[in-house]
Amino acid sequence: MAQGLPLLNEVVLEDLPQFKGRDGNEIVLTLSSLQKLKVVNCPGLTSFIISAKIQLFDSSYNLSSLKFLSLMELTELRVIWNGSIQAVNFQNLTELNVGDCISLRYIFSPTIARNLPRLSLLRIFDCEELEQIIENDQTSSQHHLQPICFPSLAEVSVRDCENLKYLFPVTFSHGGILKLKTISLEKVSKLEKVFEGDEANVSKDEEKVIHLPQLTDLKLSELPNLMSFSPVSYHFVFPSLEDLKVEGCPNITTRFSVDSKQSVHAKTQASQSDDGTIVEESAAAQETTWPAGSDISWWVF
């Protein structure tokens, strides 16, 4: 059928309770012009496979045109990409929305995550079993593999995903998300860190300074188990931040501050004293520091 629809660029599958796909548990799409795919309330789907297998027979069929992917209310969905994922081509995917997929454990496999150069918008909500954005890379010790990064990512938003413990590995911040403009995390009750890393191998005496040059909006809301923004000894700088909101994060140890140039800083240290008040400093390096665990609502006038 795909061969008879060479110009089809949008597919919407909605409210199909009996729809299971080929072989009872999969859908294979090989539409060469497909740009937008939306799947809503198809509870019979357990494995959603987007495959370019047909390239083995005809190289003109692939999914390199896909730009928008939305997966909603797929209650039995456990894996988005499965099977022979080495052949999958998502070079032009720019927007991914995943919501109400209550059985989903992770969003990306490491292989898929390494091949999303244009992904700009990532929104995830109401995925209660979600534990990781990117599945643990079992081959990370193989140094020939390229590092995982999202070079075009501008916005990431996660809401009501109660089992997620961190957003991204801290290695992402080492040049892998330089275009990131918005981070919004709300009601992620088990989240412990925004950026996670191996603190056992980090020297507490050596500060690692990380810049996110384009970040303009940072929202951390109702995260009762959030302990820190990053691993110990990391110092994040947001020179372009315009709106900072931290609320309902009583256990966070990271201190946020604003310097005389209106750059926002987020420092995570091994031990910090807390006098419970906002500190105003006249020195050029710091002008305002908020105590750890306090609610913050700050914006550029």
TrEMBL record:
Pfam families: LRR_RPS2. Residues 31-128, 139-260 form the Disease resistance protein At4g27190-like leucine-rich repeats domain. It comes from the Eukaryota. InterPro entries: At4g27190-like_LRR (IPR057135), LRR_dom_sf (IPR032675), Plant_NBS-LRR (IPR050905). The keyword Chloroplast does not apply. The keyword Kinase does not apply. This is Disease resistance protein At4g27190-like leucine-rich repeats domain-containing protein.
